[in-house]
Amino acid sequence: MKSETKTVQTLFRSDAMQRIMAFGALIVLAVGFSLASPYFRTFDNFVGILLATAVNGVLGLGVTFVIITAGIDLSVGTVLTFAAVMTGVFITNWHLPIPLGILGGVLAGALAGWINGVVISRMKIPPFIATLGMLYATKGLSLVISELKPIYFNDTPAFREMAMGSILGKIIPGFEIPNAVLIMFGAAIIAHLILSRTILGRYTFALGSNEEATRLSGVNVAGWKTAVYSLCGLFSGLGGVLMAARLNSAQPALGAGYELDAIAAVVIGGTSLSGGEGSILGTIIGAFIISTLTNGLRILSVPQEWQMVVTGAIVVLAVYLDILRRRRS
Amino acid sequence: MDNLSSASKNQELLLRMEGISKSFPGVQALNDCRFELCAGEVHALVGENGAGKSTLMKILGGIYHKDAGHIYLEGKEVEIHSPHMAQHLGVSIVHQELNLMPHLTAAQNIFIGREPRAKIPFVVDDKTTNQEAERLFHLLNLKLDPTIRVADLTVAKQQMVEIAKALSFNAKILVMDEPTAALTDTEIEELFGVIKQLRKNGVGIIHISHRLEELKLISDRVTVMRDGKYIDTKRTQEVTIDQIISMMVGRTIYETAPELPEKPSEDIALEVRNLNRGKALRDVSFQLKRGEILGFAGLIGAGRTEVARAIFGADGFDSGEIYVKGRKVHINTPGDAVMHGIGYLSEDRKRYGLTLGMDVKENVAMAAMKKFLNWLGWVDFKKATTRGQEMVKALNIKTPNLEQKVQFLSGGNQQKVVIGKWLTADTEILIFDEPTRGIDVGAKSEIYKLLNDLVHQGKSIIMISSELPEVLRMSHRVVVMCEGRVTGILNAGEATQESIMKFATMRSEALLATAQ
Fold it and tell me: What is the ipTM metric for this complex?
């Protein structure tokens, strides 16, 4: 009896409630669009939504960690571009083996994240400024390195296959879900385990909850913060590789603005911008809400400009609901 | 308690600090200070704000570095470079402002930085973490769920978590910086139970407090500091509170409030009817007369601050009515409250009462800026300066000049600046939330005198306080709250500490039933 009451209380108080609400909203969206348009409920469209979620979802994973520490990373979109271009350099220009090229791309992202972390934690530059700097730097570097031209992966079809092929489709015929989607879910599970089970996860929450107390507890705050931003960069790198594989090319001008989608997904998923609270599951749900919304509105022939307006309203509404919920408890 | 006086006799000397000096830019914070502590001893460290107690303890805790002097732990000289190192040497500090991570559980907080690990690298072993926390709570005779989020605990319980954390380092020396400042009497008793338990285990405890009465109850010896200097160390049994106070302030004063202000008039300045807000406030009704000090007593979390914030328009409320001088008013924002002549002096001056980075005259003008604007809408600094000077003089604010940023003033003087701010705004009704918290003895009696002067001038005051002697001495009537309800309103004559506590713990049956 007692534990039951406690569980119910915990449910209502904690950010679990936000996730439940977000999930409910996702279901409502999906059902609504399905009723509105027969095309929405086709398998192809379902795959389209999954695929559209993959890159933003992966980006959101890293951003979740950063926002839980009460930080922000504005550079994930252009770090993604940078990682994609580097992957192109490694695979197409340098003819490195594909796995090495992928690893290089992911690590390029992690390196950018590491620099963010060092600038923030050692030089004490506010995350907003540090990552804004990184946004410009990686945007410029991508253009310089690629000489303003897309790098294509035409000689290495296996690279595209890695993300766009479907292992699932081979196992279950007709169920052609691209690998990129599986990679996103795999990355999400790993991110979830890191966040909930490891010391990195524990310190991520501790930093966001009370950084000074964490420091006074003898935790190497600068080191772990750097690790969080590096991890965020690493996920951006993975996002870049997926993006390059999906487009079969590294587009040096693509990626700007992705950070906003990623932050929106994280916030819709119930992660608090003031730090200390958040979850990977919420972020994934948030990413799906954004892509479902975009997809559904497009099918209903709502112009792209209006899709943005709606997304903006949803982000603010999600945060407002969260504030209402907190005030009540 | 009976064997307190013998506690430090012939006991192992744990700590000796000698010739400790420390200066900050422009201030000599410590000058040739010393301190010693035996195993199983509770050693009180007292002094007015700014006497250097916290600085001395921060040096012991590795947060500050001393400029000169020696520290000996169990006879060996040590250099304490970091908080981490202090912990390893067995020194733990429970800071005044609790150093916890509210979003983490009690167990996670205790073991932050040294989580028990599972076999897989980097993975935390939560089961062991919780078991170990449980074991620590057991040692302290505490009933606490290690998996509960710290944000959901009372301040008192949070403090217990801090103590359990300190204990988990196998602390030999535990420093408690004003541990009772935010606690109610029952909670203090619980804390003292824990302290006695620790002392039995041979832990040396350094206890910093402004509540001198409680030092008599718990400490073996008392060391007094003043203006960054060591004054004296006495066996607690051998000195009176008055003697301690005179050592602290360097002159003989008495920690007594002025005479109870004369009887208020029968005019009602403020009436609150059936105020409700969720679970925090339930049907709160009371009247405040003109020229009255109405004390609000109750345990932490009883809803006293919530009442104040609701009246002040800081939080809003679900239902209820507020009347000022018999007229019904609608207060939705603090601005409305100020317009109706209500001022609120928060318990947390630094966060809600002052703009720390601004100077004295700007803070004084803050709540009534309109009065200081010239025809262009610019601030008339001459006017503000004049007003600032008046307030500095009237309230005896100790500040080098009006351009001093208030963050550099002592607690008592900051409180006076806040009072000056509301006086400037011409508020008739003043709500003081813990007006003397963290303020030293000398400044306390000045604040009491001020309250007295204010009601003489016809202002009406609501005074929320967790110190019962203060409530009893300074109120005409006392409103007692428990769990969001007003459980009793007592006249000064009939109120005693016992009667107030009876009402303060009057929980409703229905609430008890749901809690179980």
Answer: 0.84
